[in-house]
Design a protein that fits this description.
Layout lengths: L15 H11 L10 H13 L12 H12 L15 H4 L2 H12 L4 H11 L12
Helix pairs in contact: 1-2, 5-6
C-alpha cells in the first residue's frame, strides 16, 4: 500500500523506492498501522529497497522478496511481467492469475470491483495466511 508513495511518474522513476522509504519514516504519525518499532522499520526498509537490484541490497529479507515479487506481478499493467525475475515459487504460480485479473479489470468501468469479484470466483484464490518465518 505504501511502497510507491514516493513515485512522481508511473513510468521509469529512479529513486522512488528511496523516496518512499523516506516518506514513510517522516510520516509515521499519519500512517495508521498498528506496528511496533521493529515492524515499522522493516516496512520502511522494504519500501526503500524494493526497486533496487537484488545484488545491490544490503539484506534481501523474505518480506522484501515478497514485496518485490508482488511489485513484479503488477508489471502486467505495462506488459512487462517476466516470470524469470520472480524470486519465489508462490509468485510464479500467480503469473496466470495476475494476467487474468488484469484482463478482467482493464476494460470495465469499475476495475476494483471486477478484480474483487474475479478473485473471489477463482479456483486459485484462498484467504491470506500469515507468512511463516
Amino acid at each position: 500500500m505504501l511502497h510507491d508513495v514516493g513515485r512522481v511518474s508511473d513510468g521509469i522513476d529512479k529513486g522512488h523506492g528511496e523516496r518512499s522509504g523516506e516518506w514513510i519514516s517522516q510520516n509515521r504519525i499519519i500512517i495508521s498501522l498498528n506496528l511496533n518499532e521493529s515492524q515499522f522499520e522493516q516496512l520502511s526498509y522494504c519500501c526503500q529497497w524494493h526497486e533496487t537490484s537484488d545484488n545491490e541490497i544490503p539484506q534481501l529479507t523474505n518480506e522484501l522478496k515478497c514485496l518485490k515479487d508482488a511489485d513484479g506481478l503488477d508489471r502486467v499493467r505495462i506488459n512487462d511481467l517476466n516470470p524469470n525475475f520472480l524470486r519465489t515459487s508462490a509468485a510464479r504460480e500467480l503469473v496466470k492469475p495476475a494476467w487474468d485479473l488484469y484482463r478482467v479489470s482493464e476494460f470495465v468501468k469499475d476495475p476494483w470491483t471486477a478484480v474483487l469479484e474475479a478473485t473471489e470466483a477463482s479456483a486459485w484464490w484462498h484467504p491470506p495466511v500469515p507468512c511463516k518465518r
